[in-house]
């Protein structure tokens, strides 16, 4: 489902973010991508979402060889991935409903189907009834849940999360990671970048370790 | 198709909402565009009015043929009628000419001319073919007739006015093109600022699979709407100008005994101006968004 082979990434100013990184995740698998700050976790996720392109190496996601993916196909590829960020990246001037509906609207869906799916997604993350509110009126944990609902509302086969519990306390972090596990139980391939060792030990899922842009191991 | 139209309607409604949220800068841009469009449009309307006015004055290229005094005017008029290219001839006898002159000049009661009539007979010739060249050719032929003293063409000043109007039209076209370009740049700059203020939103839309067309759409609506409303503002400025000129034109009318009313743009021209404003706005927005989208590509 996700495969990186001999991936290198050098940024324009010469910083080598990744050097010969490689790992693979099977369909329906869940794994943690871990390492200290600056290890290259976020870069790996950006490469998988094609927010960045690798300097060298091959990345395959959901059957797409990303090196051969033309720019015009990029939006359609991104619709196959759900992404959750530490800062959740919600649109604060839009309602919770509109935020969650965005991937569906972008995909050309309208009317009742959007409403049905958004309410179902909000139900799954425990925010049913809050759809008319605005993100800034929600707590940090609730905002993160809205971000997760948005990432999953269009039912992507792959879910990527970059430090999704970074700003949350322990109890809220457990809730969020449990949500990811629940989605994984339903067949979604999940890759979570985190340095929260407590979550890694609690879930007993596969761990991919990075350090200074190099692979330190995949257990 | 229905879903496509629904999406467009949703984006359009959201655009109206964005307009309502920041009325002051939007209004200023609209007024700026309105004034930019009002200048060439006003000049165009001025030229059209001048052209209409001059058409009323044009004698359609008639020729005044002055006959030699002491000759047989009826024979001369008959000779003129026989010249090819003459459509009609109206003869003004010396006596009739004097009467008209006395009435028009107000010098009649002064008995200035006594019993002597210094005026010759005049034949007003209407050419079969209007147009400067054929009229000039006919004038040359008439001059060769033995009883003709002088031929005067009434076309010269009309030609000069036409040339001046043509120059005016060209100047308006150049001004319109220049200000149209300025309008595109104004809207491109405005849209660029709007795109910059929505960088986060654009990044999120990209992330969830928004195509460039989807990202572009609301900005194109903003551009077209701003341009269209700017054109509407230009029409209002123009109407206000015409209303302001109505009084002085009426006074001029009374002084010359003429019957002329200033006219603005017709419905079709007004709609064309609105469409032009919207198109230029759309173009400006398209240029600005295309640049922003190119910068954001992976």
Walk me through the structure.
The complex is a heterodimer of chains A (219) and B (298). Chain A has helices at 41-48, 74-78, 96-106, 112-124, 140-152, 170-185, 197-203; strands at 2-10, 16-25, 30-34, 56-61, 64-65, 81-85, 158-162, 189-193, 206-211, 214-218. With 219 residues, chain A is an alpha/beta fold. Chain A folds into two domains: 1-80 and 158-219, 3-Layer(aba) Sandwich (Rossmann fold), CATH 3.40.50.300; 94-155, no CATH class. Chain A has a six-stranded mixed β-sheet, sandwiched between helices. In chain A, strands 2-1-4-5 form a four-stranded antiparallel β-sheet, covered by helices on one side. The mean pLDDT of chain A is 89. With 298 residues, chain B is α+β, with helices and mostly antiparallel strands. Chain B has two domains: 2-57 and 159-296, no CATH class; 63-153, Alpha-Beta Plaits. Chain B is built from nine helices and four strands; from the N terminus they run H-H-E-H-E-H-E-H-E-H-H-H-H. Chain B has helices at 2-21, 23-57, 73-82, 94-105, 132-143, 156-197, 199-207, 212-256, 267-296; strands spanning 63-67, 86-92, 122-127, 148-153. A four-stranded antiparallel β-sheet of chain B has the order 2-3-1-4. In chain B, helix 2 crosses helix 8 (212-256) and helix 6 packs antiparallel against helix 8 (212-256). The radius of gyration of chain B is 31 Å and the shape is elongated. The model of chain B has no long low-confidence stretch (mean pLDDT 83). The interface between A and B is medium-sized, with 26 and 20 residues.
Summarize the structure.
Chain A is of the alpha/beta class and about 220 residues long. Chain A has 2 domains: about 1-80 and about 160-220, P-loop containing nucleotide triphosphate hydrolases (Rossmann fold), CATH 3.40.50.300; about 95-155, no CATH class.
């Amino acid at each position: 489902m996700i495969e990186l082979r001999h991936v290198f990434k050098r940024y324009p100013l010469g910083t080598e973010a990744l050097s010969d990184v490689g790992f693979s995740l099977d369909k329906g698998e869940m794994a943690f991508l871990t390492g200290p700050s600056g290890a290259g976790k976020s870069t790996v996720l950006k490469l998988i979402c094609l927010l960045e392109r690798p300097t060298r190496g091959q990345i395959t996601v959901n059957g797409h060889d990303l090196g051969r993916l033309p720019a015009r196909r990029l939006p359609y590829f991104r619709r196959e991935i759900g992404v959750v960020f530490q800062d959740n990246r919600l649109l604060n001037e839009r309602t919770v409903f509109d935020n969650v509906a965005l991937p569906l609207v972008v995909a050309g869906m309208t009317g009742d189907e959007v409403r049905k799916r958004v309410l179902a997604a909000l139900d799954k993350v425990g925010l049913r009834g809050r759809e008319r509110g605005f993100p800034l009126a929600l707590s940090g944990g609730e905002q993160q849940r809205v971000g997760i609902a948005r990432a999953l509302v269009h039912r992507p086969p792959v879910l990527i999360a970059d430090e999704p519990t970074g700003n949350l306390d322990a109890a809220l972090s457990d809730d969020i990671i449990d949500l990811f596990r629940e989605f994984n139980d339903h067949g979604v391939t999940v890759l979570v970048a985190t340095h929260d060792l407590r979550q890694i030990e609690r879930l007993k899922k596969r761990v991919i370790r990075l350090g200074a842009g190099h692979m330190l191991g995949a257990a | 198709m229905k879903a496509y139209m629904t999406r467009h309607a949703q984006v359009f409604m959201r655009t109206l909402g964005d307009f309502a949220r920041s009325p002051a800068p939007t209004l200023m841009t609209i007024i700026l565009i309105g004034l930019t469009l009002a200048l060439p449009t006003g000049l165009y309307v001025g030229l059209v009015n001048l052209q209409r006015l001059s058409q009323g004055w044009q004698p359609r290229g008639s020729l005044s043929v002055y006959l030699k005094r002491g000759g047989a005017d009826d024979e001369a008029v008959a000779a003129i009628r026989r010249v090819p290219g003459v459509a009609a001839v109206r003869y003004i006898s010396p006596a009739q000419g004097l009467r008209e002159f006395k009435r028009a000049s107000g010098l009649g009661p002064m008995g200035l001319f006594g019993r002597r009539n210094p005026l010759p007979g005049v034949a007003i010739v209407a050419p079969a073919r209007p147009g400067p060249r054929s009229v000039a050719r006919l004038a040359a032929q008439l001059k060769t007739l033995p009883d003709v003293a002088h031929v005067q063409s009434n076309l010269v000043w009309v030609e000069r006015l036409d040339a001046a109007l043509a120059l005016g039209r060209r100047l308006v076209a150049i001004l319109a093109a220049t200000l149209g370009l300025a309008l595109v740049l104004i809207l491109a700059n405005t849209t660029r600022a709007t795109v910059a203020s929505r960088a986060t939103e654009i990044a999120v839309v990209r992330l969830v699979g928004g195509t460039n067309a989807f990202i572009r759409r609301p900005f194109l609506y903003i551009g077209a709407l701003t341009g269209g409303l700017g054109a509407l503002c230009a029409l209002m400025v123009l109407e206000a100008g015409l209303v302001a000129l109505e009084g002085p034109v009426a006074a001029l009318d009374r002084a010359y005994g003429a019957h002329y009313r200033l006219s603005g743009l017709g419905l079709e021209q007004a709609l064309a101006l609105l469409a032009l404003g919207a198109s230029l706005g759309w173009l400006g927005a398209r240029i600005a968004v295309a640049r922003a989208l190119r910068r954001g590509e992976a």
